[in-house]
Amino acid sequence: MSFENLNLIEPIKRALKIEGYDKPTPIQEKSIPIILSKKDLLGCAQTGTGKTAAFAIPILQLLHEEKLGPNRPKGARALILTPTRELAIQIGESFEAYGKFTGMRHTVVYGGVSQRVQTIALQRGVDILIATPGRLLDLMNQGYVNLRSISMFVLDEADRMLDMGFINDIKRIIAKLPTVRQTLFFSATMPPEIQKLVSTILNNPAKVEIVPSVATADLISQSVYFVEKSDKKSLLIHLLNSLSIESALIFTRTKFGADKIVKDLLRAGIESAAIHGNKSQNARQNALNSFKAKKTRVLVATDIAARGIDVEELSHVINFELPNIPETYVHRIGRTGRAGSSGMAISFCDAEERIFLRDISKLISKTIPVIEDQPYHSRTINLEGNLSVKKKKVTTRTMGNGGSYRMQDKPRNAGSGRTGINRTQRNSRASEQSRTF
User: Fold this and answer.
1) How far, in Å, CA of 142 to CA of 136, rounded?
2) CA gap 315, 293 in Å, rounded
3) pTM of the model
4) Rounded Cα–Cα distance for residues 122 and 106 (Å)
5) Collapsing DSSP states into helix, strand and coil, what is residue 130?
6) Looking at domain 3-209, which of 3.40.50.720, 3.40.50.300, 3.40.50.2300, 3.40.50.360 is its CATH number?
7) How many CB atoms lie within 10 A of CB 48?
8) Where are the alpha helices (DSSP H) in 164-280?
9) In DSSP terms, which residues pair with 44 in a beta bridge?
10) Measured between alpha carbons, how far is 282 from 132 in angstroms, rounded to an integer?
11) Could you tell me the CA-to-CA distances from 378 to 294, 372, 389 in Å, in that order?
12) How many Cβ atoms sit within 10 Å of the Cβ of residue 282?
């Protein structure tokens, strides 16, 4: 199927052609007709499946058609609520690209920067408002925003909203929306509190669920390096200097850890930058833009800060620290190997992280090749822990055989953990700590 088959208006088809888009992704193919029919939608899809275009394109079309009618309402008519500043900015860029010939006006509001530019844009008038919860509530309380004219509401990445503690803010915002509206709800997973929210804000929704294809996952070559915690920095520098790593997104559990890795890499002459909640919005956006433009080779991020980062042709994901929630591992490595491209996922595992590796292996139902031919290999970790992981001696350049995973709809959190606690305790701690990452 092509976009020509989706009954899109000419201004949008022209914009899509300029962007080089010909065929819709599965979620776009399924969602666009539903949204154009003005039904509520419940979408279950991961980041990277094309869901932003799945709601942006039909919103632009419906508002454009409404604009041509005799009774065009004043004020913003579509509200897109999203958890992070980076994701809000990217959604704004998508509306700009797809709607360049529609005459629709949009603005993005988020915290961490001065609100002056945002309030000026709001006072001039917008059709589409893209916002993070905290800044939106601030602007509502100051009288800059009212939601009386909203006819389309999108709640994006609802499960991440829950992880980040935004659920009460969301409820306050929803309470100010008109009762009669079209609601589009997107979430990668459906934990109980999200299911409860769905039942209260959606009206007889159509459901679209997209599971990433195994073929895409097969393109991700997974490998694990057993290494002492004290040697991780040296191993990372060794790999970045010895392997053909064009671009790497490195994951760490904490903001402090991300900054420390960047300092170590810069001292080693490796251009890198960190992105996390303690960075100013300008610093985060500059780091992301530099990474996308391939001016910076390495970006170090925490899980929450990395949410919504979508970088084309990302060659490597490196887990400097293994996540204690196995589903987080799946989301991390899924940032490479997109759109049919190959990708590599490298994980470091120290003695305390053996239990995390075992949980990951169970979740993905795959053995992950262990790279032993490396200068910091720890045989102690190999011999202890009784992990069901295949040991495979290969050169560091071949990286081992590719692995694959299957996606499962389970709640996930970001956080740190220790080997002496059970899975329930780890989930609880991760939920409590997620705001600080």
Assistant:
1) 10
2) 14
3) 0.61
4) 9
5) strand
6) 3.40.50.300
7) 17
8) 167-175, 192-201, 214-218, 232-242, 255-267
9) 187, 209
10) 16
11) 33, 8, 15
12) 10
pLDDT digits (tens, 9 = 90+) for 60-73: 999 998 876 556 66
% of the chain residues with pLDDT over 90: 51
Q: Provide the strand spans (E) within 85-126.
A: 106-109
Give the mean pLDDT of 295-313.
77
Rg for the chain (alpha carbons), in Å?
A: 22
| Two tokens, residue 129 | 């408002």
Q: What's CA 76's distance to the chain center, in Å?
A: 26
Using the structure block, give the residue that is written with the tokens 């009669």: 180
In DSSP notation, 263-280 reads HHHHHTT--EEEESTTS-
Task: Pull the structure tokens for residue 355.
Answer: 């239990």
Nearest to 405 by CA among 368, 358, 355, 356: 368
Residue linked to tokens 């799945």:
54
Q: Nearest CA to 374 among 275, 258, 226?
A: 226
When the pLDDT of each residue in the chain is averaged and rounded to a whole number, the result is 82
Say how far apart CA 273 and CA 262 lie, in whole Å. 6
**Structure tokens given for 430:** 């991760």
CATH fold of 214-436: Rossmann fold (3.40.50)
Amino acid at 112: G
**Measured distance CA(207)–CA(86) in Å, rounded:** 27
Which residue in the block uniquely carries the two structure tokens 């595992």?
A: 349
More confident residue, 426 or 379: 379
Structure token digits, residue 290:
């530099």
For CATH 3.40.50.300, the residue range(s) in the chain are 3-209, 214-436
